[in-house]
Amino acid sequence: MDTSLDETHDPALTSWVDSANDSTTDFPIQNLPFGRFRRAGESEWNIGVAIGAEVLGLRRAGLVDTDDMLGLMQADAGTRRTLRRKISQALRSDSARRDALKSSLVSQSAVEMGLPCRIGDYADFYTGIYHATNVGKQFRPENPLLPNYKWIPIGYHGRASSIVASGQSFHRPVGQFKGPDDPAPSFGPTRRLDFELELGAFVGAPNALGEPVSIEHAEDHVFGLVLFNDWTARDVQAWEYQPLGPFLSKNFASTVSPWIVTLEALAPYRTPFKRPEGDPQPLTYLDSAVNCESGSIDIALEAALQTAKMREAREPAQPLMHSNFRDSYWTLAQLVAHHTVTGCNLQAGDLLGSGTQSGPDAGQGGSMLELTLGGKQPLRLPNGETRGFLEDGDTLILRGHCERSGFRRIGFGECAGTVLPARSF
Fold first, then answer.
1. On the CB side of 412, how many CA atoms lie within 13 Å of its CA?
2. Is residue 131 annotated as a catalytic residue, yes or no?
3. Which DSSP letter does residue 180 get?
């Protein structure tokens, strides 16, 4: 786990791409996140980095010799750092390659962004202790957290094929659900569609089957982070999850942001990982000195809602809540170490969801289930509309950024999805 800083983090660096020097951009030269894009009329995906409001095509610029994102992600940490430095040098204001690289730039508004890579397997964790507590209180007021929560990174295997890129719409799912007083279950469109504010970690370097990854080397296997919305049909979930867990309530769509912010870019925003006083300390295989010193990451998170009426009136999305990833109960390194302790082989492009990232204060719930107390206290929006859960036409937008004194602000862009009406049967 290497969290050291180098010349690419220098806050004084500027770029010959003017929009990258805007103090409000998510994508200054200190960020350089990776994604896949294609221009109008193209059928093949290209690897690019976001720089200000532009995309730099890396193969066209001669900075890589492939458009295989998984191949790039599998590189070791030293190779990744070398590539990051080479891209940074090419984009700096004093770069001798400025004129040669201009033809490799294209506006982000003029390209289609796809999934950052082909996703093989997907596992979702439950690292947000405030979310777990808030939800647990609704079902077990006296004992909201189950006995294993503070000892083990809880997770389940999800559905990779229905993960979509930001900007794509999806149809309201249908399924079975049953109220506590209903004599039999009903079938139809979910009435309690929800969002979940998460981060997703993309695996880079794989590990071989049968070879666990130690916590000391766990982050060497993480390429970077994205925003992740794990949409959920709460009424379907409540009926189906006993005894095995989520199935149809989460297999219809999950949305990721298009840009992978690398762990190298996130190095300045590391914070110590420390358990609250009185809580059990992690077992040995989930504990290390470096993880304690810098295992957490300070990432400010936000969820915002734009209804169909707001969109028609050209009103901006309304923020619903804010939280921070530093409040996660488990770190990235712990997730990888735990996932592989059995010898499970992670592969490049596998996605690990963090679980819903809620904050400690009222109004910081990372889902409508929390923000509205299960729909009992609907939110009132500025235009007079109310929401207990999401309605058709709603667009939910996740945002995230990192700020620290002495460093440039960097961000993740947007993770947006729109709810369409259920298909008829």
1. 33
2. yes
3. T
Tell me how far apart the alpha carbons of residues 261 and 198 are, in angstroms, rounded to a whole number. Answer: 14
Read off the tokens for 356.
Answer: 């819903």
- What pTM value is reported for the model? 0.97
Domains parsed from the chain with CATH numbers = 7-113 (2.30.30.230), 122-420 (3.90.850.10)
Q: What angle do CA 377, 389, 161 make, to 5 degrees?
A: 150
Torsion of CA 119, 122, 125, 128, to 10 degrees: 30
Q: Write the DSSP string, 139-155.
A: H-TT--S-TTTTTS--E
* β-sheet bridge partners, residue 111: 39
Contact in structure between 272 and 294 (CB atoms under 8 Å): yes
Task: Write the pLDDT tens digit of every residue in 31-85.
Answer: 999 999 999 889 999 999 999 999 999 999 999 999 999 999 999 989 999 999 9
Cα distance between residue 149 and residue 276, in whole Å: 14
**272/297 Cα distance (integer angstroms):** 8
Instruction: Give the distance from CA 143 to its chain's centroid.
Output: 29
Q: Kindly name the residue from 9, 131, 221, 338 that is annotated as catalytic.
A: 131
Give the 3-state secondary structure of 256-279.
ECCCEEECCCCHHHEECCCCCCCC
Backbone dihedral angles phi then psi of residue 408, each to the nearest 5 degrees: -75, 145
